[in-house]
């Protein structure tokens, strides 16, 4: 059974398809059609019929705070059954894309990675011992490292398909949103289990002992202080700017105001990525406006970051006077297709073979231990993230804002932006303070409705 075109897309392609492009890639299309991995089979159908079982940060916290062997094995078996369930839905999404889209070699590479992971994890038997769990963790680690190429491959595939007008940008963005949310969800549960296993094997671990509120439970930081995160990300962003523009360019000050004691449970890499991207955009805009005006040595206006805490939410506003967003760029701001800048971004992506989507991968150096105000676990966590992958500090990939919005919305938050062309930008980040909202996953019904 071949992948099927959805009727609306089929009609559009019939009327708009650019035949020379399609013929040029016909050999790729045939290779996809004859690859047995693209054919429907009962195992995939069975797993697609199972909906993902979403979790919340609070569930991760409560489950991991009193860790013992039984809970660790229960966590292992949840991950063992949930990974193939979530991957299966994304495989089916790719199978329902038009032929001329899935023939793109970037998409095909991602499909192969997903298929291999699905086939591996669906075959694993129930995990009954610590030894079996250790073997399972090695499988998870291997898969996570192999999938570091997924984000740049997807981004390049989206840009190439969009440039050839093979599929509407709105549908490509919906597909990208679904596949990236699912990727985040799988890495959350997988990395959480790896972290719990590491904790369990730690010499200092005592089964059943409750974790202090100031510490991590797995990858969940129980009391993520907004001001600390902003200051830490701000310093990292200024270091990046100094590395990119040189010592002769004056850097803006990052001014913090509002409820600086606000804290909330969160996965540190998620919130750091979002805050880091927002501050990077502001710093770059301010510096480049000063350079354009011939005032590179003059200090730009400050970036104002305001924290507002309520009973259920924490809101963070980032305001700059960097000139705002050009009108021709604004319509493509939240899109992965990127409009007039797509070719330059595509060229930049070829320099990034792997991407973890963390702030740490673009840091010039790790912060001194004295600057990290959390536990020793956080310092270890930051260093381990830095070693995953790296990319040039000022390389623009065109996905910072759309990916930040996905991270924000994943835990039932939000990200909004207001631009005043000629003056500056205000960005508003909303975070759930209680951690009691389930992860926000796109269901297949939402994809099929396109």
UniProtKB/TrEMBL annotation:
Residues 54-220 form the Branched-chain alpha-ketoacid dehydrogenase kinase/Pyruvate dehydrogenase kinase N-terminal domain. GO terms for cellular component: mitochondrial matrix. GO terms for molecular function: ATP binding; pyruvate dehydrogenase (acetyl-transferring) kinase activity. Residues 1-21 are annotated as: Disordered. The keyword Glycoprotein does not apply. It holds the Pfam family BCDHK_Adom3. This is Protein-serine/threonine kinase. The lineage of its organism: Eukaryota, Fungi, Dikarya, Ascomycota, Pezizomycotina.
């Amino acid at each position: 059974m071949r992948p099927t075109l959805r009727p609306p897309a089929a009609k559009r392609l019939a009327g708009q398809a650019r035949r020379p492009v399609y013929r040029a890639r016909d050999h790729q299309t045939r290779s996809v059609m004859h690859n047995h991995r693209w054919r429907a089979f009962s195992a995939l159908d069975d797993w697609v019929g199972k909906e993902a079982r979403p979790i919340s940060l609070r569930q991760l916290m409560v489950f991991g705070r009193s860790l013992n062997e039984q809970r660790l094995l229960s966590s292992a078996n949840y991950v063992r059954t949930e990974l193939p369930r979530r991957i299966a839905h994304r495989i089916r999404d790719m199978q329902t894309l038009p032929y001329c889209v899935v023939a793109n070699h970037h998409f095909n590479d991602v499909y192969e990675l997903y298929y291999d992971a699905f086939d591996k994890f669906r075959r694993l038997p129930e995990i009954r011992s610590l030894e079996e769990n250790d073997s399972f963790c090695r499988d998870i680690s291997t898969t996570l490292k192999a999938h570091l190429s997924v984000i740049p491959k997807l981004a390049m595939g989206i840009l190439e398909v969009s440039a050839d007008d093979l599929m509407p940008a709105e549908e490509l963005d919906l597909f990208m949103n679904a596949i990236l949310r699912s990727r985040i969800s799988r890495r959350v549960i997988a990395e959480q289990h790896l972290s719990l296993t590491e904790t369990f094997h730690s010499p200092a671990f005592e089964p059943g002992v409750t974790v202090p509120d100031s510490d991590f439970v797995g990858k969940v930081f129980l009391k993520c202080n907004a001001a600390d995160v902003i200051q830490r990300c701000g310093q990292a962003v200024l270091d990046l700017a100094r590395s990119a523009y040189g010592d002769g360019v004056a850097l803006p000050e990052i001014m913090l105001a509002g409820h600086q004691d606000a804290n909330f449970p969160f996965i540190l890499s998620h919130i750091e990525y979002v805050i880091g991207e927002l501050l990077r955009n502001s710093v770059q805009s301010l510096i480049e406006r000063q350079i354009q005006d011939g005032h590179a040595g003059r200090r730009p206006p400050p970036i104002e970051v305001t924290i507002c805490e309520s009973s259920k939410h924490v809101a963070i506003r980032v305001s700059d006077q960097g000139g705002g967003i050009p009108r021709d760029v604004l319509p493509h701001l939240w899109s992965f297709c990127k409009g007039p800048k797509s070719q330059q971004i595509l060229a930049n992506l070829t320099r990034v073979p792997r991407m973890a989507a963390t702030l740490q991968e673009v840091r010039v150096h790790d912060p001194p231990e004295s600057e990290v105000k959390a536990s020793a676990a956080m310092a270890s966590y930051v260093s381990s993230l830095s070693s995953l992958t790296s990319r040039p500090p000022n390389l623009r990939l065109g996905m910072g804002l759309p990916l930040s919005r996905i991270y924000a919305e994943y835990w039932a938050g939000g990200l909004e932006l207001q631009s005043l062309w000629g003056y500056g930008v205000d960005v508003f980040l909303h975070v759930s303070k209680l951690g009691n909202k389930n992860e926000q996953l796109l269901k297949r019904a939402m994809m099929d409705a396109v």
